[in-house]
Amino acid sequence: MKTYIPLALASLATVMAASPAKADYPVAVHGSVQADIVFPEIDEEIGAIGPYEQKILFNTYADVNMASQFVDAGLRAEFMKWPLPGYEKDFAGWGLSNFYVKGKYKGFELTGGDFYEQFGSGFILRTYEERALGIDNAIRGGRLKINAVKGLHLTLLGGVQRRYWNWSKHSQVYGANAEVYLSDYMKSMQDHNATWMIGGSYVLKHERDEQIYLDNSNYYLNLPTLVNAVDVRSSFASGPWSVLAEFAWKGQDPSFDNDYTYGDGTAYMISGSYSKKGMSAMLQAKRSYNMSFRSQRTVDGISAFINNMPAFTYTHTYSLPALYPYATQNADGEWAYQGSFSYMFPRKSALGGRYGTKLTVNASYVAGLANGPDPETPFGTMWGTDGNKAPFFKIGACNYYDINVQIEKRISAPVTLTFMYMNQLFNNEVGKIVEKDEKYIRTNILVADAKWKINRKFTLRGELQYLFTKQDQKDWAYGLAEFSWTPYLMLSVSDMWNCGETGTHYYMVGVTGSYRNNRLMLSYGRTRAGFDCSGGLCRPVPAMHGFKINYTYNF
Predict the structure, then answer these.
(1) Phi/psi at 157 (nearest 5 deg)?
(2) Residue 210 contacts residue 225 (beta carbons within 8 Å)
(3) Pick from 518, 524, 530: which is nearest to 545 by CA?
(4) Which residues lie below 8 Å from residue 448, measured CB to CB, with a gap of 6+?
(5) Which of 73, 75, 32, 40 is nearest to 56 (CA)?
(6) Which of 26, 78, 36 lies closest to 56 in space, CA to CA?
(7) N or C: which end of the chain has fewer CB within 10 A?
(8) Above 80 in pLDDT, residue 546?
(9) How many CA atoms lie within 13 A of 121 on its CB side?
(10) DSSP-based three-state secondary structure for 4
(11) Distance in angstroms between the alpha carbons of the first and the last residue of the chain
(12) Tens of pLDDT along 392-405?
């Protein structure tokens, strides 16, 4: 019976959405249905060798949500008995995965069930859903939000965390967050369109003690049952300027991430930006150490985190620049810097020409922490020590850097050109996304993107990319042609060719159709083995060859 939950929910939601609400009691119903389906084929040349449990693999989701003046409610069903390749083993399952009821009245909001929350930048608490990575670490319990006092926002919560189809029976998470908007009380700041916020957060993890024995001994670790974490931050904005400073601290939290050591975790971040018409700039820096924070210290996987440490790297949308993505080093720590600058040369200027020219420069640099003095290890292991604490300002070896320059130029009313150059270094000993004895992978990448808007409905776009490297599989080339009929149809054909070592082609043809609330995408071809990354977390994606169907319906 549970097999048909997504279809039943979709039918019920459609009927409810079609039913007119009474004017004296407005109720809105919305939701979505999503199905990702793959018909895999064996392809030994690219390493797509299975074995596949079924001839059809799919991930299916169905959401229904109701909103009214005082009460909101919703639920989600999922069917992933035979999920797409690359997800962790525990990802497979099916049933009702999410439900909630929310009451709202005069600045008070009480939620019972499953919910997502983030305190500050997420250093000590971030629960969210990211389907492409297989992350859904929602908290099941209760949450109270209070916005009844001007300039003051409060949040209290508690519950157990989801990890795939299990909700932790060994630990609970509690939290409190407060943000004070001082500008709401200062007329002079309001007159100058300035805002000033001071915030603070507290998270408590209660986890049942486990007996984890030291190797080849009768000694086991005395693990803390309570782990405290604190976050303080302040942001200020005035006109085109804004700045954010944030500090987080986590108490003793031995886990497999930090070799069961007892040192505290810390994170420091400062970020500043400037933005006005035609120009913007951003610069930020972060130092983090031992900030891996899980609801269960012995549970592996990217869906077991309570928090999230964002990656200070540029998110690339082109295929070749995204071949070597970087994942945040939560436990070992890192120094990370990121900056960007964008400027629009005005029309009819020497560099702007008739339509103007946009220049964007992005740079990221991430380094490990320098090694501190070796701690005493009476049993020949780091277990039970305070860890290897590094000097605060001393920077270790480079983990990753990326500098890219993009130029966007409209050469005529219908034609726009975009060019990008990127220089990148990836430390494979840290990320280990290449199964070779390569320490550093250095790349230079060129991208040319042309878009021709034939008329209001038809657009033709093409990409040419080339990646130069002497490491891994040497050079790559990529080409794409895309035709779209807005908003109904899009056709595309692409090929990623390893022209440096293997000579392998990763071709792909696809068609996407949209009509009203429906979107259907069909594609066939090869996908290179690699990593899918978002927000500093990465999921390995195996090589695939086959036919894919992606369908979504929103109401």
Answers:
(1) -150, 165
(2) no
(3) 524
(4) 417, 418, 419, 463, 464, 465
(5) 40
(6) 36
(7) N
(8) yes
(9) 23
(10) helix
(11) 25
(12) 888 999 999 999 99
